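User: quick one, sequence for these tokens?
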């Protein structure tokens, strides 16, 4: 769905400026990526590209470590990819299948089928639990050691985006029905329901599962206390889509990316913007859109982000 708004994003991106020079820039694909992710620790990128299939990259030396595809001799068209919340495992999915991989060795550690049309993924610490958003209005809560589907979580629209706490006990789902739900996953019970607006573009949850975030297509994002349901702050800008979000390790900051190549860091309690980085436009003619697919904020202030064209920018904190 994000691809459908790139034309609008191009116009907006030209109004933002020329961009900030990153400490490091890496091109991981020759063409755009179907799906991509940055590990929470900022060390790895996972790309499902148009020409090269799935691959894991180490960012410090721009090394392609492993080729990850679901069928031998074939390039998988990835519908979604993600890292576990501790960066030790990764999960890749085409529309009907999931494979979990060990980041250190590159070996598969589990595979499962899903018939609902996979759209989004989340994976807890040590790859113990997976949350899978689907086109059939359900999300699957999976125990990976057994492959058992522990719960099916329902919406009234496609589940565009999901996130999970580090311990795998609390999850959040965002749907095209305009609803965000926070779940006690073991019971399949929605403990909070929010209606920030039409069509949820991205969600995030803090490691402890106490704070949640949701962004809208063409709208601002909201941050809530997951336990009380209290709204904490509003971030972003009207008529701009927030396409990615992740909380800092301590839950005090939120880093977001949007469809006009910006990365922004926010104070969770106040919604105050603390920092902004803007990627350079790949080309002005022919015009190029650049959507932020995923972001990472390290404790030392280093920002890493991956874009829809498969490139990565890293901005190191000179003070960190």
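Assistant:
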């Amino acid at each position: 769905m994000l691809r459908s708004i790139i034309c609008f994003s191009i116009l907006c991106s030209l109004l933002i400026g020329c961009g900030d020079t990153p400490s490091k820039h890496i091109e991981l694909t020759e063409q755009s990526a179907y799906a991509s992710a940055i590990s929470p620790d900022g060390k790895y990128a996972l790309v499902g590209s148009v020409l090269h299939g799935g691959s894991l990259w180490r960012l410090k030396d721009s090394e392609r470590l492993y080729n990850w595809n679901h069928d031998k001799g074939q390039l998988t068209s990835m519908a979604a990819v993600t890292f576990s919340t501790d960066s030790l495992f990764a999960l890749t999915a085409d529309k009907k299948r999931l494979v979990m991989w060990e980041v250190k060795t590159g070996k598969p550690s589990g595979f499962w089928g899903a018939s609902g049309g996979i759209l989004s993924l989340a994976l807890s610490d040590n790859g113990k639990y997976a949350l899978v958003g689907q086109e059939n209005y359900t999300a699957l809560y999976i125990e990976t050691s057994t492959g058992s589907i522990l719960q099916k979580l329902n919406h009234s629209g496609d589940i565009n985006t999901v996130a999970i706490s580090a311990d795998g006990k609390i999850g959040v789902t965002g749907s095209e029905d305009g609803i965000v739900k926070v779940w006690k996953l073991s019971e399949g019970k929605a403990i909070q329901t929010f209606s920030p607006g039409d069509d949820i573009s991205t969600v995030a949850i803090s490691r402890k599962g106490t704070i949640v975030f949701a962004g809208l297509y063409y709208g601002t994002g909201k941050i809530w206390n997951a336990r009380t349901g209290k709204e904490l702050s509003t971030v972003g800008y009207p008529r701009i889509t927030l396409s990615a979000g992740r909380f800092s390790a301590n839950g005090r900051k939120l880093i977001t990316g949007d469809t006009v190549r910006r990365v922004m860091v926010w104070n969770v309690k106040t919604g105050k913007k603390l920092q902004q980085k803007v990627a350079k436009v790949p080309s002005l003619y022919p015009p190029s859109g650049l959507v932020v697919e995923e972001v990472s904020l390290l404790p030392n202030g280093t920002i890493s982000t991956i874009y829809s064209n498969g490139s990565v920018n890293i901005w190191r904190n000179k003070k960190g």
